[in-house]
Write a structure and sequence with these properties.
There is one protein chain. The chain has 11 helices and 12 strands. It has 329 residues and is of the alpha/beta class. It is 43% helix and 15% strand. Strands 2-1-3-4-5-11 form a 6-stranded parallel β-sheet, with helices on both faces. It has helices at residues 2-8, 12-19, 27-40, 46-53, 69-84, 99-112, 157-170, 186-201, 216-227, 240-252, 286-303, and strands at residues 58-63, 88-93, 116-120, 139-142, 151-155, 177-180, 210-211, 234-237, 262-264, 281-283, 309-313, 316-318. Helix 9 crosses helix 10.
Length: 329
Amino acid sequence: MADVARLAGVSTQTVSRVSNGYPGVVESTRQQVRSAMRELGYRPNSAARALRRGEFRTLGVILFTLSTTGNMRTLEAVSSSAAREGYATTLLPVTVPTQDEVHGAFTRLGEIAVDGVIIIMEVHLLDTATVTLPPHAQVVVVDSNAGDRYCVVDTDQRGGARAAVAHLLELGHETVWHVAGPEGSFSAERRVDSWRSVLRDAGREEPALLRGDWSAESGYRAGLRIAADPRCTAVFVANDQMALGVLRALHEHGRRVPEDVSVVGFDDIPEAASFLPPLTTIHQDFAELGRLCVEDVLRQIRNDAPEKGTTLVPTHLIVRHSTAPPPTR
């Protein structure tokens, strides 16, 4: 900094103000300082600046799987929102969701210095005595029902599932089959609960629940069972990848979509409109989810106080060509 100041003919304080982006520096002087920085190859010492300010301009992200579309799109949205706020993101996958692994993740994040943490979860973990987060940590949790203890941001899973099942019943189907996500997933269980609730409120029969693991292959296996049951005229699938597998199984067994069987997915992935037929699905606003996660954790950082409560991001039904009234008997 002293070298830059000598070359630019200014004080080190002026160099500091320019490097930190502070106002109050004449533009010609600012350009002169920047020119000296470029000539000398000077770069501000971010570590020293962080120690001086008491902030690192970095958010840690802990997540338990990179294999699901929801997690990946949430991570993308968090990173983009953080970048717009001038924050970097440091990703730390946790392969085994245990107390030791989570505490180890926080320890590693502390060693590389972060201002706050966003945890992207889809397992029943924070709801048990197995895992507790470090006290006074500035944390936002995604996809959890722990809003009485932490700041939680989630998609309105129940509302989306209600809309999907209600859409199929309104088309005239007697009942709706369901291919659920894996046990242990908060989002999967919320969608199952809403599916059951809508059917019971309408006085409809509840078909046997089928489960997958979010993959198209697991949807295909469930779809084989659906295709073999002539009573099935409508199915709500817990995500679009599994819906793709269901569509394949129905096609292979001569069950036309939507003429014989209507199919609704969940997520509204970019490829959903290009399925054959284009998939009716529930849209999740991952960009808004990521924005709210960053907004909430930054507010905690600035106020130096953890928060509690749950914020839900609305979903909405996207009707395409995979749903229609049931076939006439």
